[in-house]
Amino acid sequence: MLMVAAPSELELAGEGIIGLEAPLTPDQLAVAVRVLLQAADLLCGAVRPRRSSADKELVQRAKRHLMDSQGMSEEDAYRFLQKTSMNSGVSMARTAKIILGE
């Protein structure tokens, strides 16, 4: 969070709050917002685990299975995996395992 305030009020800024002394120039504000957005991107990447290569291969195999057995396009097979995964609250890799009977 970004707090722009008079110097005497910046002492109120708690943990996780970036305090900047008012008044700010437009350039200073742009830099502060850019830094906050980059920090948010880093946090999102740290919180959300990336799919392992084994999981990616599992999803690919399940997609191929759906394409062959159900006549789905690659895009439809992926959407089916994604939607089924989201609706059931399990990972796409777990959904792929279920589809493949593993």
Specify Rg, calculated over alpha carbons: 23 Å
Biggest sheet strand line-up: 1-2
How many strands, what sense, and barrel or not for the largest sheet?
2 strands, parallel
Instruction: Give helix and strand order, one letter per element, not per position.
Output: EEHHHH
Low-confidence stretches: none
Describe the structure.
There is one protein chain. This protein is 63% helix and 8% strand. It is mainly alpha-helical. Strands 1-2 form a two-stranded parallel sheet. α2 packs across α3 and α3 crosses α4. The longest helix is centred in the middle third of the chain and has 22 residues. The radius of gyration is 23 Å and the shape is rod-shaped. The model has no long low-confidence stretch (mean pLDDT 82).
